[in-house]
Structure formats: structure tokens, C-alpha cells
Amino acid sequence: MIRKFLGRVFSGQLFGPAQPKILEHGAHGVGRDALSACALRTTQTLQRHGFAAFVVGGAVRDLLLGRRPKDFDIATSATPEEVRGLFRRSRVIGRRFRLVHVMCGPEIVEVSTFRGSNPVEDAGERVADEHGRILRDNVFGTQEQDATRRDFTINALFYDPASQEIWDYHGGVPDLLKRRLRMIGDPEKRYREDPIRMVRAVRLASSRGLEIDAATRRPIRRLAGLLAHVPPSRLLDEMLKLLLSGHAAEGVAQLRKEGLHHGVLPLLDAAMGRAAGERFVIAALEATDERVRAGKPVMPGFLFAALLWPEVLAEWKVLEEKGGPPIPALYQAMDHVMRAQAGKLAIPHRHGADMREIWAMQPRFLQRAGKRPYRLLEHPRFRAGYDFLRLRCASGELDPALGAWWERFQHAGEAERAQLLTGEVGPRKRRRRRRRRGPHGAGVASEGGGPPGAQG
Ligand code: ATP
Ligand code: MG
């Protein structure tokens, strides 16, 4: 009773006109047993102390879609300090938005206080930049306001574990049934407040099989340039989610279709402009999607290395044609591409280091004589470098026989390895030959993939 009353107070129903549509359990079928133990315990504790508490956002959306949520977010009427006081294992985090991480065993749920709708002017203080981008919006509000400041209708659903009701302020449930992604409020204004919502629209549509509503989609192409004003670290978070969603191929294709890739991966355009580059990037994204869907880990550095490889390759070739020695030319091309990318997407140093290792390893796969192949096998990143080589073979950049040779060599016993090596040109002579032909592998196809036994 009290909880219901408080819920109404915090939802703004007693003061404001906005009424949520409340769906009973029978109307949606999501039971509280679908929640994680931590989400359930946290909402129960908050409610027991008289606060409103709901599971909210992506988790409710995904449960309705029949997907297992990655994590659970909770929205509450309690302030961060009040939440902190109720859970021994919790901490307040965030500067832009203050929220509380509650920990139960290894699981963490994020608890945020209902936030108000975005004020553009707040007591004369400027909280938006000249493009309308919101710089600060840590204002507590009602549940209804908390729903309204969210991006899409399907992301603004509240689930009450106690009653197993869904509270829908913006028609998110009917949108979900129609598999429609629709912005809350005026799409252009919402994109100006936070341009990252354009990337989120594409990411959610491609990963959840949704159609972007016409009015929500229309302004994107025109406003794509606003991504230039978004902090690169936020862009990276969204891009990583897109690339690791298991639907990266569709996601990147849709980013290009909406004209958003310029602001995220400016070099991708050039890469995709060339048939070979496009084949390579698509092969890389499809291989990644397959791994993600099989529950295997994916190295972000590998992905970024793949997305930027066509550009590295092109610059490497140009530098070599100008007469530069191949390896320094490769390193120069790598540096240049990394620098050109850096302003857009803040690729963290550790991923950048992985990318360089994967690229730098590529010429070494052409050396199939002497001790060098053995040394390459011991490289800590051999597996990533080799997977990368396979993609180059699959996309037609290199003779598939080269990939097949390495497949055999790494799994062969000692005697077979020695045999695989014997057909090769000696290392000294070979080095001279390669310098003339260039290390890109253009010559590999005509050189053949090693001894006849390696061709299969
Ligand atoms: P995923 O399941 O892929 O994480 P998500 O929708 O949960 O998708 P989060 O970034 O975890 O994405 O955000 C959680 C919720 O916060 C969203 O469902 C949405 O309600 C809200 N939200 C996130 N980003 C924005 C934004 N840029 N503008 C408005 N609301 C946002
Ligand atoms: Mg989420």
C-alpha cells in the first residue's frame, strides 16, 4: 500500500499529468525469476525501506525480447547517499552522473536515482554547449522525468519485481512488439543534446533486429557531423559495444548507410572504397560476429587492427613505391594511420599496442625458412597474428596457400615441420629476393605457397 503510494508520488502522478501504462505480469510474461539475484535483492531492500525501486532500461527491453540481459540497472527514488547507507558492499561512482554500484558476490548492479529531464539553462548557469549538447544533468527528478530523459521508448520501461508490473510512460511495449526503435521527444533536439544517441540508434537497431522509426532516422544524416563534439572515450564505449554485439557486420554497414562512420572511423571510408579493402573488413567483422555468437573472447585490438588494415596496407605500398625499405615503410604507415585515427576514437593504449603487434607480425609470415617460423610460433600474439593472416587470405589479399602452410606448420610434428621448411629458399637468398618484390604478399601468389605438400 505504502509502496504503491510512494511509487505514485515519485512517478509524479499526484502532481503531473503523465500517467504510465501499467502492464500486469500476465500481459508481458516477464517473471521476477528472470532477474539476477543481485538485482532482485537490491530492489527488495530499497522497497523495504520505503523507496521506489525498479529494474530499468536495457535489461527490461532485453527480457521482453526474450534475451538474457548482460547487466541490470536499477532506478530508485533514494538518493546515492541513501542507497550507499543501505548496502555495505557499495560505492558511489561517477562525476557527470552520480550513481551507486551495489555488489553481491561477483555481480554488480548499477543503482541510479530518478533524474530530471535535461535543463538547458539552469538558474542562469549554462549546462549545454553551443550545439545544444548537454554538459551536466545531474538533477534529481520524478520517475516520469526519469523515463522522459532516456533515449528510446523501448529503453524507458520500468519493471517492478515485487508486483511483476511493467510501467511504460512512452509506448515502449507496443514499439517493441512492432520491433520499432523510436526516440522519446523531438529526435533532432535529442540528438543535439547528445549526438552519441545516433550511434546508439544504429547499434540497437542492428543488434536487436529493430527498424529505426522514420522520424527518428531522418535527422541522422544531417546531424552526423555533431559526433565531432562527443568525448572520444564515450564514442569508444559505444563503438566497442557495437563491434562486440555479435552483429558488427550489420552495425558497421548501417553506420555507413547513415553517414555516421566519418565521425567514428574516418579511415573506414577509404578502406571500403577499395574492393579488396571492403572484402577484408567484411570478412573480419563476420569472423568476429561468429566468435561472439559462439561465446568466444574477442580482442578489441584485433578488430581495430582489421578495420584500419586496408589503410595501413595502402600507405605501406605508397611508401615502398617511393623507394623506402619495406619494414620501416610498414612502421611508418602504421604510425601515420594510428595518428590519423587518434583524434576521433580514443583507442586505449593497450589495444593500440595489440594492433601494432598484429600488423608488425604480418611480413614475418612470409618467412618460411630457417629458424624464423619457429620464432614466430613463440610470439605471445601468434594466434592473433595468424588469425589476421587467415583473413588476408580469405579476402583474396594473399594466396590461401600461405595460410594453409601456417596451419600445417603449427600443428605438425618435428619431422613434418622440417620437411615443410626444406622446400623453401634459404633465408639469405630469400631476403634479397623479397626486397625486390616487396613484402605485401602480392608476389606470394606467383611464388606459390611453399612446397607442394602445403598447397592442400
Ligand atoms: P546494452 O544492453 O547494449 O548495454 P543499454 O540500452 O542498456 O544497451 P546502456 O548504455 O547500458 O545501454 O544504458 C542503459 C540505459 O540508460 C538505456 O537503456 C537508456 O535508458 C539510458 N541511456 C543510455 N545512454 C543514453 C543516452 N545517451 N541518452 C539517454 N538515455 C541513455
Ligand atoms: Mg546496459
Describe the structure.
By secondary structure, the chain is an alpha+beta fold. The protein has helices spanning 2-11, 25-28, 37-48, 58-64, 80-86, 143-148, 172-177, 187-193, 196-208, 214-217, 220-223, 232-243, 248-257, 266-273, 275-293, 300-321, 326-342, 349-361, 372-377, 382-394, 400-411, 414-422, 427-437, 444-447; strands at residues 21-23, 53-56, 73-76, 90-93, 99-104, 107-113, 121-122, 125-126, 157-160, 165-168, 180-181, 211-212. Strands 1-10-9-2-3-6-5-4 form an 8-stranded mixed sheet. Helix 16 packs across helix 17 (326-342). Residues 57-58, 70, 73, 150-151, 155-156, 194, 196-197, 200, 241 line the site of adenosine-5'-triphosphate.
